[in-house]
Structures are given as structure tokens and as C-alpha cells.
Amino acid sequence: MYDTLKKVFGFQSFRPNQEAIIKNILEKKDVFAVMPTGGGKSLCYQLPARMMKGTTVVISPLISLMKDQVDAAIENGMSAAFLNSSLSTQEMSAVFKQLKENDLELLYIAPERFAMPSFLETLKSLPISLFAIDEAHCVSEWGHDFRPDYLSLSNLTQTFPHIPVSAFTATATPKVQKDIISKIRLRSPHIIRASFNRQNLFYQVKSKIGLESQIMEFLKEHADEPGIIYRTTRDSVFRLTEFLVDQGISALPYHAGLSPEERNRNQEAFSRDRATIIVATIAFGMGIDKSNVRFVIHADLPKNIEGYYQETGRAGRDGETANCLLFFGRQDIPKIRYFIDQIPNENERSISMDKLNKSVKYASHNVCRRRQLLEYFGENYAEENCGACDICMGNVEKVDITIDAQIVMSAISRTGQYFGTKHIIDIVAGADTKRIRELQHNEIKTYGAGKHKEKKHWQFIVDELLAQEAIAQDGGQYPVLVLTKKGTDILLGREGIEGLKREEIKKKPKAFKVSGFEPYDEPLFDKLRVLRKRLAEEHKVPPYIIFSDMTLHEMCIYYPSTLEDMITISGVGDTKLERYGTDFTKEIKAHLDVNPDISIPERKPVAIPVSTPQQKAKGGTIEKTYDLSKEGLSIKEIAKARNLATSTITGHLESLIKDGRDIAIDRLIDPAKRNTIEEMFVALKTWNTGPIVEHSKGTVNYDEAKLVRAWIYVQQKV
Ligand code: ADP
Ligand code: MG
Ligand code: ZN
Description:
Layout: H1 2-9, H2 18-26, E1 31-34, H3 41-51, E2 55-59, H4 63-75, E3 80-83, H5 89-100, E4 106-109, H6 117-124, E5 128-133, H7 156-159, E6 165-169, H8 174-184, E7 190-193, E8 201-207, H9 211-221, E9 227-230, H10 234-246, E10 251-254, H11 260-271, E11 277-280, E12 295-298, H12 305-312, E13 322-328, H13 332-341, H14 346-364, H15 369-376, H16 390-393, E14 395-400, H17 402-414, H18 421-429, H19 434-439, H20 455-467, E15 471-474, E16 480-483, H21 485-491, E17 498-503, H22 522-539, H23 543-546, H24 549-558, H25 563-566, H26 574-594, H27 613-617, H28 619-630, H29 635-642, H30 646-658, H31 665-668, H32 671-684, H33 689-695, H34 702-717
Helix pairs in contact: 1-3, 2-3, 13-14, 17-18, 17-21, 18-20, 22-24, 22-26, 28-30, 29-30, 30-34, 32-33, 32-34, 33-34
Bound molecules: adenosine-5'-diphosphate (ADP), magnesium ion and zinc ion.
């Protein structure tokens, strides 16, 4: 597995959950995996495709996705092809020939093909290693991209009873998950749900005041970075694109009003780095795997968090830092509400309204953006400070707002909890409106009680009270403000309330600190990026398929100027080394020649993947292992006592060591041997245990290598 990972894909380590998924596939079990966009789902079936006998059939919904994936696999030296309506009869029969000669590791097809009996007959006569269903939420009517032809997959496991099936998606609520598993009839699948945390994304919300100049300001700071700007309407897409082009920015539009040809052309130009920016409605995104999207801007309020998470998720698939910026203006709320009001079904209408409110909350609350997003998907985010959102990075000051809160709530209470935000603020601010005169609200005691402060301040108070659930919004179409129990307590002076006053961060530090991200040689990056683009044009593939930004960044840290050095870079496998190694080493050598002062750092082994929440959840059983280890039992003895495999016990000890618990490492492994293994990790420049065991020629086993790895990890942290 590790060997294939390095040789074919060029990676030193797996991303979270990839290893477990692949192991299950290799054991011929059905798998259902939910991983966020950029989590690395393709590798989960492409790697087994290389290792298993026969062809892996991948079901994928869109022609453009299929083509990119096949191109990427071929660039990695795999034999891959697709079958879909874009092929000529000749091309089609060439693929069938390859398939029948057992010459394909990967075959991508659209789901429709499963409805063709002749195709099924062909497949039945061939050695198939695996069926992989990508974007599996398309099977579910509850999923957002439902595709009726995906339903033809329901016979898959009956027609091919001996072939494992895996399904992958980035979005599956428990309801969708159940639906997918039953529709494809997976056979007690191994279910993997990865964390939805995208730690390389920086989330930020800004008040929308002068959108165009705000966007220009951002683009100036992020010159030449590819990015997506989302807008709600075609018209606003059109106008913003025109504005940007006028300003000399290379931007193209994308929306459902354009002809399919133009849409494809624009998408392709963006994908191939010919256009830097795409301005789009949410119609854009699904058909694109571009890994080097460096930012996603929402110029309008998203109508729900699911969509927002998905759209921002298109940034930074390569794992490098990327920005997600939302411009929030309250004027967007009634626009979305107008559309929600058109929904005929009352239940659906109120669900949509609820979702909109959550989206407003996300944008207006002084709560870590990441925490809010993850909590929306039912995930608990334990970190106090995520280190990569405007709230966590900003200057936040706590202020007592009890008196102002009482003013607002008194206005709400004295008008019978019948009015919305705007009217309440008008009362507090002492506005002279027709409505106030008609309702005689200028006679109530609170009228004008807050006229010494700006309306903006009162809006902040209302937001804060909503955020802390002292008041709530009630009623779908024209929501009114009502007091909660907590609000009543505050109004009656039984409880105080504090608000977070946030100073907007003036300038975000260029590289925010998330472990594993290092500064790199930017001038060299620009040179390598130009080279990558030239090679991409020659080979007729998107640039990110040649090397990802992450791979280029690594080159700009370690300056590999020989092929031996080049192969140690993550993302450089055997085939790419052969194809592009020389071009890139030459360019790097030339750069070093003209910059003789550059000192090349020693190469450290790559970071150990952080533990996933699932590992943490096993607390109870790990504690039992801990207790037994404290009693002085060896690994074997603990395994026997607990009736568990020694590898499981090692796994427990590994987590305990990593968590900094006092495990007597010397008793588990002889110090001299520990030293030897430590040296091997450094010499082999890897964090994988496979190469260590192999290199040791039988003197070191996996368990020992794993324990030492965890131990090094803790030492490095100190
Ligand atoms: P998904 O389909 O889950 O959105 P992809 O399969 O498109 O994600 O992978 C996203 C990016 O991550 C690709 O550029 C891929 O090469 C990269 N990637 C996948 N696995 C790894 C890994 N183990 N190490 C480094 N990069 C990886
Ligand atoms: Mg994918
Ligand atoms: Zn945060």
C-alpha cells in the first residue's frame, strides 16, 4: 500500500481515513465513505485499482469530472479510460478493446450505462476488481444533486454478487446516508465518516459596504491567485465580471443563462489557469476538480449553510492554505426571503426560513466560524481558538451590554412581541415614521431611549441577543422578535449579559499558522507555475494535474535539483518524475545559480497526520489499556488480558504517547533499539512504518516502529 502510494501517487502519507478505507476495499468489503471535498476520495479507489487484479469501474456523474480524473490517473502512469457520450464510435471501440484485453486499471462510466443490458453482459464476462460510486449522494432524492439515472445502480450488488462496491460522497446527512446505502444495497458496508473540518481554509466575514472596491482590495492582495466569486443572480454575475475586466483582471462569467458551449469554455479556461477568476452563480462548481483554487468569495449572503460549506469547500483541495470570504449585508436577507415566500408548501417554506436564519447567524455572530460550520453538521469542535478564522484571529473585547439589552427588550415587550427588528430599532432610536405614529409607538416609555447611539449599534445589540438566544425570531414570513426565558430574566434584572465587540482585523497575516504550513520561495514558485502551465498546454491537461500547488510549494522549500531529491517531494511519483522531473530540476538549478545566497534546509520527515475524532471517541477502551500498562504489563500481556490483537493495543499506546500520557516507553522498547529506529525514520525521510520494517530486514516490526514514531512526535512537540 505504502509502496504504491509513493510510486504511483508520489505521496509519503495517507490523509485521514484513506488507509482504513483502502484496507477494507482490499479485503473485498463494501465501503461507504463520507469525506469532505479535497479529502482525497479518488485515491481511495485508484490505489486499490492498481493493487487488485482486474478493472475498477468508477461511476461518476459528469463528463468533465471523468475526463479530468482519467487525465490525472494517466499522468500518474495508470491505465485509465472513460466511456460516455462525448466519444466517437471509434474511440468507444478502442476503449472496449482495451477493456476486453484486460488492459485497464480504471474505467470511468456514467450511471446510464448500467441501464444497458449489453454493457452489463460485457462487464459480467470480465474480471472486475471493484465498483466505485463517486458523488454517491446523486443516488439519493434527499441529496442536492439527485440524478435519476443513478437509480439504475440498485441492481449492482445482485448482478455482481462477488465484487466489492464502495460509495463516496462529500455530503451526507444521516438521512441521505441511509438512503444511499439502501438504494445501492450495500452489504453491511464499512462506514467511514471523516471530520468535516478543513483546517487549511481561513474563514472570514466582512460587512458589505462598497462591494466592488472591497473585492478589488482583496484581489490586489491576492494577485494571480485563482479564485471563485459567487453571486446570487445572473445579472450581478454579468455586472461584476464586466467591472473586473474593466479593472484589468482576467475574469470570466458562469451562469445558467450562458450557452452550454460558453459555460464549458469558461470553466475550462479557469481550470487550465487561462482565466484567473470565475464569477459565478451557484450553478458553478460540481463539474470541477481544480485543486489550486486559492479563494472563494461570497459576494452575497448564502441561503443556507450546506451550500456555503460546499461552495467554500472548493477552495484549497490541494491542502494548501486558502481563503473563504463572505460579504454580509442585511439588505440581502429580504431578497432571499422573497424567494422563500414563493415556496407553496408551508413546511418547506419554514425549513428554508430556518436555514436562512442559521446562515444569518453564521455571518453575524461573534463565534468562531469553523465551530459554527462544524456544529451545523453535528460535529463538536473542541479547540478554543481555531487559529484560522476572523473571530479567532481578531481583537475581541467583552463588554457589558445589559442596559442596552434591556432597552431593546423593553421595546419588544411593550409592543406585545408583535414586531420585527426594523420596527423595534426604529422605536429605540426614536425614529419618526408613519408606522410609529399610526401605532402610537411614540407614546411608549422606551421610545427614543437609545437615540444617543447609532442605529448600527442597536442592530449589533439585536444580533447579539439573537446569538445568545435572549430573544428569538418567530413566524416565517414576517418574523417578529420575541423574548425567551433568558431574555425575560435579563429584562427583569435577574441576569446580566455581555457582548463581544470585535475590531475587524485590518490585515490578515499572509500565512496563518496551521501546523505544517511553511513559507516558501515565492519568486521560484512563480517560475515553476509558468513552467507547469507551459507543460500543461503541451500535454493538454489542466496544470494542477501535472503538479499541485502543494507539490510546487514543497519544491520551493527544499529546492530539489537532482532527480534523487525530486522523488522525495510529495506528489512526485515514478511516472511524473520521468515525465517532468528534468524540466523542474533544471528550472530550480537555474534559480539557485542566480540566487547563490539561498541555503537549502535539511529535509525533515513529513508531519504525522493528526488524530481523527473517531480515534478520540474510543476513550474508554484506551483507558483500560493505559491502566494495564501502568501495572507494568507488556503489549502481549495486555493483548491477552483484554482479548484484543497486539496491533490494537499498540494503537492505544500510540494515542496515549501522542497525548503526552506517562507511558514508560523504555519498558515497551529497548532504548538502543529505539535509537536505531529513530535514525531510520530520519534517514528514510518518511513517517510511514512500512519502509522502516522493510529496511530493517526483519529486525523491527510494525508495532515497534509505530511506538517509536509516536514517541518522536511527542519529543518534537516539546
Ligand atoms: P475529493 O474527491 O475528496 O474532493 P480528490 O480526490 O480530488 O478529493 O483529492 C484532492 C487533492 O488531494 C488532489 O490534489 C489529490 O492529489 C490530493 N491528495 C489525495 N490524497 C493525498 C495524500 N495522501 N497526500 C497528499 N495529497 C493527496
Ligand atoms: Mg472527488
Ligand atoms: Zn475560529
